[in-house]
Amino acid sequence: LKITHIAALIFSLYFLSFLRNGNAHSWVERAYFVSNNTIVGQPGFPRGNVLRTSPSFTDKAMTYLLPPNGHTTNTFLPSDPFCKETQRSANQTSGSPVLSAHVNDTILLLYQENGHVTKLDEDPRHITSGVIRVYGTSNSSPTDTLQGINEWGFDKFIQSKGDYGLMLWASFDDGDCYQDNNTPKALERKTLVQRAHLEVEGNDLWCGWRVRLPAISP
Ligand SMILES: *[C@@H]1O[C@H](CO)[C@@H](O)[C@H](O)[C@H]1NC(C)=O
Ligand SMILES: *[C@@H]1O[C@H](CO)[C@@H](O)[C@H](O)[C@H]1NC(C)=O
Ligand SMILES: *[C@@H]1O[C@H](CO)[C@@H](O)[C@H](O)[C@H]1NC(C)=O
């Protein structure tokens, strides 16, 4: 397995807390290579991406709920696939290419907070924005399951010689992000020092976490 160009890495954010009333789910919209603290080059996109600007876009096109509606609450079956159906094979949709990056590169994964940060106060059922986990593999399979991947830890990258593992476990709220919605939290964050907004963000600041791509076994 010789991969210096990690096109095969899959990134899935698992959000353990959702605002059920808002209908607003989040997913990795883009990834960028970061050098010297600065976003460099063109973005990369998830597999099977449906851009928000596409006529076929709906929230559902990019969300994968586990357990799915109809399942017993909080029950994950051993057979529940890790990825959404449209993202189980390495298939990039037209106009949404994969990110080009190399071993040891730092990449930034960007997602929208969709009220999970700025409107948290309005949701009595949640006291935090929840957490995210980022898993990576150079060896993904359409049959990977959530339960299987749940056993991946930070140490697994070393044990598996870089084939798979947990890359990041962090709070959903990166401490900076907001949607420009005039909530007290958004108004406060707008005044803070922040990175330059991308054109696609407009007045919002998307949430982002960086991960470093680990070495892959030769
Ligand atoms: C990194 O960024 C800093 C601050 O913008 C700049 O002074 C420095 O020259 C940059 N270094 C490289 C290697 O580009
Ligand atoms: C890749 O995605 C496109 C667009 O969604 C679809 O038409 C095509 O069948 C997919 N190919 C594979 C191999 O999944
Ligand atoms: C990645 O970083 C490690 C540790 O700093 C280094 O030993 C290795 O040579 C680097 N690999 C590449 C491909 O740059």
From TrEMBL:
<protein>
    <recommendedName>
        <fullName>DUF7492 domain-containing protein</fullName>
    </recommendedName>
</protein>
<dbReference type="Pfam" id="PF24320">
    <property type="entry name" value="DUF7492"/>
</dbReference>
<dbReference type="InterPro" id="IPR055915">
    <property type="entry name" value="DUF7492"/>
</dbReference>
<keyword id="KW-0732">Signal</keyword>
<feature type="signal peptide">
    <location>
        <begin position="1"/>
        <end position="24"/>
    </location>
</feature>
<feature type="domain" description="DUF7492">
    <location>
        <begin position="23"/>
        <end position="215"/>
    </location>
</feature>
